[in-house]
Amino acid sequence: MTPTEPEKKQRSYATAITVAALLLVVLLTCVPYLVSIALAEGPVQGNAADASPIFGVTIPAGYKQWELIAPAEEAAPLDELRAVVGNQTAIEAYQAGKLPFPDGTILVKRAWKRKQSPEFASATIPGAATTVQVMVKDSRKYASTGGWGFGRFVNSKPVDEAQHRTCFACHDARAKSRDYVFTRLAP
Amino acid sequence: MTPTEPEKKQRSYATAITVAALLLVVLLTCVPYLVSIALAEGPVQGNAADASPIFGVTIPAGYKQWELIAPAEEAAPLDELRAVVGNQTAIEAYQAGKLPFPDGTILVKRAWKRKQSPEFASATIPGAATTVQVMVKDSRKYASTGGWGFGRFVNSKPVDEAQHRTCFACHDARAKSRDYVFTRLAP
Fold first, then answer.
1. What is the tens place of the pLDDT at every residue in A34-81?
2. Cα distance between residue B144 and residue B162, in whole Å
3. How close B16 gets to chain A, by Cα (Å)?
4. B129 touches chain A (CB under 8 A)
5. Cβ contact A125–B67 (<8 Å)
6. Shortest Cα distance, chain B CAs vs residue A143, angstroms
7. What ipTM was predicted for this assembly?
8. A48-178: what CATH class?
9. Cα–Cα separations (whole angstroms), residue A82 to A90, A185, B114, B136, B166
10. Which of these, B37, B110, B146, B170, is most buried using a 10 Å CB contact count?
11. Which chain B residue shows the shortest CA-CA distance from A7?
12. Does residue A84 contact residue A109 with C-beta atoms inside 8 Å?
């Protein structure tokens, strides 16, 4: 039976509602994921003044929320407490126990001056923050330094080029067999 | 004009599609959030053998992914490295700088034996895990211990009641003015 005008209108009304509802579903489910992915990981695409010399590494957004890989203590003269955290790519690589770390791995070492705990003579706790140091794996971009880019930051600003020239040599000398990464996953 | 039979069918078809689509939207947006809330926070409702004596505190699911509050070092005889992490309620309270911590705050202190770094004579790193210690804020349930329940775990099992009788007295003696919590947020 040929549809009448009112029936055609009803049908296109139903179709329009359905399409609109499906679009809304897609929007509500996909956009939050895309936004969280965009915000959660990766170096901040900030201005060049925030990026490390030589490597162009920046402090990744949200790194303070990243999962802990391990704490550490450094004796005098630095006298620091450290905590190394990693992004999801890093954590998954550590848990899989596989080397090398995949491209996209980001490790951040937070460091503080060690100070005496006011409550316990036997304990030391973090004092002032000293450095935030970042390693980013990109085997093409950083091929000449084992696939890693480095950034050392004090008060959120990158330190000078001379200091950045020292990073890789030390990692190469002492951790080459572990893909240039010192930190082991705390059990 | 009185709607005809086909028009009534079209209208109810359109209505059914709209309602179904709206239900789908609600489902797709609400259920993931509810599931993530249910999974992300709070003590595991496991069996009684996993819960601490006196307080009934359990090791919270997913605590290893929680945000770091601060590392710490403990000298001999314990000779440990520690990392205190907190759930979202804890983190927000720390960032707001307000005491007391609200009900629902959970703090977890992870601890490892300190061992010499193989690469750096000046550094110590985590060896074997020693304890996982949990504080849960519930001002009604734990009114007699400053609002806090305590759990100390070795290899995921709670230690004995005698040890749990010692927890609050020390927190009361040395940290009462800070809502019985020693750990300060690392800057």
1. 766 655 544 444 567 799 999 999 999 999 999 999 999 999 999 999
2. 17
3. 9
4. yes
5. no
6. 24
7. 0.76
8. alpha beta
9. 17, 14, 13, 26, 30
10. B110
11. B7
12. yes
